Amino acid sequence: MVRGQIIRVGRFDVEITRPTKVLFPSDGITKGDLIDYYRQIAPWMLPHMRGRPLAMERYPDGIDAPSFFHKAVPSYFPDWIKTVTVKKVGGTLRHVICNDEATLANLANQACITPHIWLSRIDKLNYPDLMVFDLDPPSQDFELVKSTARAFHKLLQELQLPAYVKTTGSRGLHVAVPVKREEDFDSVRAFARRLAEAVVDEDPEHRTLEQRKDKRGGRVFVDTNRNAYAQTVAPAYAVRARARAPISTPLNWSELNNNDLRP
Q1: Are 222 and 178 in contact (CB under 8 A)?
Q2: CB-based contact 232:116 (threshold 8 Å)
Q3: Is 144 within 8 Å of 206 (Cβ atoms)?
Q4: Per-residue buried b or exposed e for 149-182, using 16+ beta carbons within 10 Å of the residue's own CB
Q5: Strands 207-208 and 220-223: what pairing?
Q6: 92-123 b/e (C-beta count within 10 Å ≥ 16 → b)
Q7: What is the pTM of this model?
Q8: What is the pLDDT of residues 14-33, one digit of tens each?
C-alpha cells in the first residue's frame, strides 16, 4: 500500500491513506494491518453487522492518543456507503450501515478500530434480534466470569433458548441470545433483568447487578443495560483498542472449561 492508493473492494473503490500509520505502538500494528485484517475476516464478521446502525470508535493517532466515538456519518464518506437515519432525543442522526467488505475497509481506513453495532436492525429499530449479557470482572480473575457464563448457559438451556458466548476482546465475556423481533427493547430488557437476577441469586457472593463499581465488592457485574434502543456492543471478530490488538472471539461453550482461556 502507498499513501492515497485506491483499491478495488468488490464493486467499490476504497481510498487507503497513511497505511503505515502505527495504531498500536507497543506492537507495531499499522492502519494497513488493521485494514488487511478486516478484509480477511469480513466473510465471518459481516453476518453479525449487516443491517445494523453502528458507531465508530476511532483512534486517528493510535491507541495511546485521544480517541472519540463517531456516530453521525461524516460528510466526506463516499456516497456508496449505506446509511440510516434514526430518531434520537431532540431530532435525528444518520448512522453508517456496514453490509459489505468495502465499507468495513473504509471504516478501518478512518482508524475505526472497533465498530459498535446496535442490537436491532434498520427495518425494525425498536425490536431487537439480540439479547446480550455483558459479564464484567472486578479484577483479572477470569474464572469468576467463566463460571457466571456457564450459569447463564445452564439457565438458557433449561428455558430452551439458544445462546452463544464470546470474549469481549477486553476483560469480560458476552452471552448473546438471538430473539424473535416480536418484543420491543423495554420488554427484552425486563426479561434479561429477570434472567440476570436468577443467575446472581444463585451466587450473590461472586455476582452482582450493582451499577456502581465501588459497591460491587469484587464481584462479577452482570450488565443488562445494553438491551436498549441505540445502545451498542462490539460485534464478533472486532478488534479492540488495547495492547496486542485483542479480538472479540466467539467460543464453543466447552472452551469455558479450558484453564488456559484468558482475556
Answers
A1: no
A2: yes
A3: yes
A4: bbbbbebbeeeeeebebbbbbbbbbbbbbebeee
A5: parallel
A6: ebebbbbebbbbbbbbbbbbbbbbbbbbbbbe
A7: 0.94
A8: 999 999 999 999 999 999 99
